[in-house]
Amino acid sequence: MDPRPRFLDIHIIQPVPYANLNRDDTNSVKTMLYGDALRTRVSSQSWKRAVREHFQNELGDNALRTRRIGERVAEVLRGRGWDQALAERAGAHVAAGSSIKWEVAKGKDKQPITNKVLTNALVYLPEDAVAELADIAEAHKESLTADFTGKGKQKPESALKGKIDRVLLRRNGVINLFGRMLAEVDQAGVDGAVQVAHAFTTHATEVELDYFAAVDDVTAARDDETGSGHMGTAEFSTGTLYRFATIDLQELTKNLSDDNGTALGAARELAGQFLLSFIESLPQAKKNSTAPHSLPHLVHVAVRSDRPLSFAAAFEEPVRSAEQGGYVARSVEGLDAYSKAANTLLGPGRVLHAAHASLQFDKLEHLGERQSSFAALVTAAVDAALTEAPQ
Fold this sequence. Notes:
Blueprint: E1 7-19, E2 31-34, E3 37-42, H1 44-59, E4 63-66, H2 69-79, H3 84-96, E5 102-106, E6 112-119, E7 123-126, H4 129-139, H5 165-168, H6 173-178, E8 194-196, E9 199-201, E10 208-214, H7 217-222, E11 230-248, H8 249-256, H9 260-280, H10 287-290, E12 298-304, H11 328-346, E13 351-358, E14 369-370, H12 374-385
Parallel strand pairs: 13-14
Antiparallel strand pairs: 1-11, 1-12, 2-3, 3-9, 4-7, 5-6, 8-11, 9-11, 10-11, 12-13
Helix pairs in contact: 1-9, 2-3, 2-4, 3-4, 8-9, 9-12
Pfam families: Cas_CT1975 (PF09344)
Protein name: Type I-E CRISPR-associated protein Cas7/Cse4/CasC
Organism: Streptomyces koyangensis
């Protein structure tokens, strides 16, 4: 077995108070049945978005994902002094100029909106690439004569056809890390280096209905009617979550560069910030009415040479609360015990580095050395994982 680092796993135990971090299409708490017990669930898509936003804010290296790329280009051109109608037409030519299929957007009256062109697939590109698309429109300003009205059987052809795809190939750190799916543009796809699991409670949970009412201030002041201005119900739950993600270090360095010297430095920065963002991020649903901004009680990281290893099976049998109440302590104990059992079963030499950081647990025997802070934990893991480029 190759003894070099290949995967960087992160495991988190995090209690979350009364909240609904991730709703379904009916505004209900997302759940899953696991070990014949109902658990509260937070989807990987929801948490990945929270991680990505935190990640971008920290690094200042933003990516834009949208069907409305033409509108963003039009905004840039308006900032350069273009007439609004011409800027909107130019944006439409940009949106229709790539290999991605497109359509003219419709308003509330179901009628087409002239020069508001939507791509059928989400474009995902570095934020600064929007200015490059605007430069292309500016260089061909005299050719942008056709309007996109959405009327007629035949679509007009963009004057920028064949000039847009090369910009859509551009990528930055967040795209190299999280990947990009864009099948309609040749070579635009990027295999993500990060895999994120759905978070779920280590124990059985129940969904609670919260009845609420909104007071009409005028009615309350006049005291001439009874009742509220609005009444409703919302779903919430509480629980201790198990969260897991892994970074494929080989995929990350491959995405970054063929030059391992250059890729290694960038990989260290991206991997380190991803771990910190995964630790500190939280989905934002219902935040104004719940403020569920808790910290993880335990974070464990492991650098592996073989394969990623989720510890989700540690909680297939739901954790039961301690005598005095609470699920955190027994969840952490379960994670520690499963780590020992799983790594013993797989055999020695696969875990090249292991460590943990926690609020209160001093006697964890199988999760590696205890670090004093999340920052120290991440630094040590990245140092162990990326001293040389993975092969």
